[in-house]
Amino acid sequence: MVDCSRNGGHDFNMASRKAEEATWRRYEASQWLESQVGPLGISNQPTEKELVSCLRNGLVLCNVINKIHPGAVPKVVDIPVASQPLTWDSQPLPAYQYFENVRNFLVATEELKIPAFEASDLERDSVDMGSVSKVVECILSLKSFQESKQINNQNESNKQIKSPLHMQSASIMHSKATTAYPSDACRSLDLSATLEKTVPIESNFQQPEGLISQSCLFMFI
């Protein structure tokens, strides 16, 4: 027989671990958002409803993505009540006040090839269906994107710093080689060697005496 109590305990442990992981990921996402745009007005360990309540107008999301990738969302609709913490029981905002921000944010994430979610995932009914995990995954992907971008920028800066030093070193080595073996000196040495070979041949050349006498007689005649 199958031990139902053992299976039930295993399922409970699995569900408990998943819940703990989801709680930790929400905490990590909310802490990173606050490090980028300031306090969100929610608890340190937000529930799914708390996290979605401060994101559903799209203002936080747009400001975050513009900070890590300037110009990602050219137009952000500023909502007057965004500075006040929104509770889940508060009256829903008019659609035109937040839908444009959310839509522009999702377009930007698509262009940056970051896993996104559906605009409907920020609605009330979607929270109970577990869609908040997609929102959290998108936020953590933005965090990873920022970290990767910072590493790439640092590597690029290191390359720019090393490049002039390398060029300067090569220039110094070239100047030392030129000083040790100047081209003009090499040409002078080659020319001197040539003259040493040709001069003795010309100085040792003597005209036969017979030819000299004949040429003199010819001149007198």
From TrEMBL:
<feature type="domain" description="Calponin-homology (CH)">
    <location>
        <begin position="23"/>
        <end position="147"/>
    </location>
</feature>
<dbReference type="InterPro" id="IPR036872">
    <property type="entry name" value="CH_dom_sf"/>
</dbReference>
<dbReference type="Pfam" id="PF00307">
    <property type="entry name" value="CH"/>
</dbReference>
<dbReference type="InterPro" id="IPR001715">
    <property type="entry name" value="CH_dom"/>
</dbReference>
<protein>
    <submittedName>
        <fullName>Putative minus-end-directed kinesin ATPase</fullName>
    </submittedName>
</protein>
